[in-house]
Write a structure and sequence with these properties.
The structure holds two protein chains of two kinds.
Chain A: E1 4-6, E2 11-14, E3 19-25, E4 30-38, E5 44-50, E6 55-57, E7 60-65, E8 70-75, E9 84-92, E10 99-100, E11 104-109
Chain B: E1 5-7, E2 10-13, E3 19-24, E4 31-37, E5 43-50, E6 53-56, E7 65-68, E8 75-79, E9 88-95, E10 107-108, E11 112-116
Parallel strand pairs in B: 2-11
Antiparallel strand pairs in B: 1-3, 3-8, 4-5, 4-9, 5-6, 7-8, 9-10, 9-11
The chains are: A mainly beta, B mainly beta.
Chain lengths: ~110, ~120
């Protein structure tokens, strides 16, 4: 079983739609959680960290459910520029290495 | 403030040759990480280095791969006797200088795409 699992998609949505991605992680010792964005053939870029209380950054909302070991990302009012692969990333206490999911691909169409 | 720099951006090697990938961390960062992304797969951790020290190499293949981060100059990921299966994107990331137990944001370089013929 992969340590971080994501639905690979693609999710095809029209502009203006709301879309949600989920991710599950298997290591209950995971302490830090992130969503990264990766455009085609580019490097991953941090989108947002995910906190236990949930957090929002503009059109993006991230939630963490430690009991069920899943993380979610909600994107409201989708833009064409949101088209990318969204990577769910976890980190375990005391270890600096990030563990990446394989990513969920989002395609936003006009 | 320049970001993480990697060179070359593209590297073509024939089977059996050596590949050297370089990474210069963001200014002020002393922690460097290497990740590999195989086609259609997620990024996989390879190695974590600080200046002159390998901290965690649990993701490094046992043979042919080595990494260093000397006191002066960039971090180097070296692959000896490359095989076709080494074809991938190799990303370097860097973070700041807090204690190892504190998770700091890792910033990624543009990557080196290695193609082995």
């Amino acid at each position: 079983r992969k340590e971080v699992e994501q639905d690979p998609g693609p999710f095809n949505v029209p502009e203006g739609a709301t879309v949600a991605f989920n991710c599950t992680y298997s290591n209950s010792a995971s302490q830090s959680f992130f969503w990264y964005r990766q455009d085609c053939r580019k490097e991953p870029k941090l989108l947002m960290s995910v906190y236990s209380s949930g957090n929002e950054d503009g059109r993006f909302t991230a939630q963490l459910n430690r009991a069920s070991q899943y993380i979610s990302l909600l994107i409201r009012d989708s833009k064409l520029s949101d088209s990318a692969t969204y990577l769910c990333v976890v980190n375990n206490t005391g270890f600096q290495k990030l563990v990446f999911g394989t990513g969920t691909r989002l395609l936003v169409s006009p | 403030n320049a970001g993480v720099m990697q060179n070359p951006r593209h590297l073509v090697r024939r089977r059996g040759q050596e590949a050297r990938l370089r990474c210069s961390p963001m200014k002020g960062h002393s922690h460097v990480y290497w990740y590999r992304q195989l086609p259609e797969e997620g990024l996989k951790f390879m190695v974590y280095l600080q200046k002159e020290n390998i901290i965690d190499e649990s993701g490094m293949p046992k043979e042919r791969f080595s990494a260093e981060f000397p006191k002066e100059g960039p971090s180097i990921l070296r692959i000896q006797q490359v095989v076709r299966g080494d074809s991938a994107a190799y990303f370097c990331a860097s973070s700041g200088s807090k204690a190892a137990a504190v998770q700091e944001t890792q910033y990624f370089g543009p990557g080196t795409r290695l193609l082995v013929l």
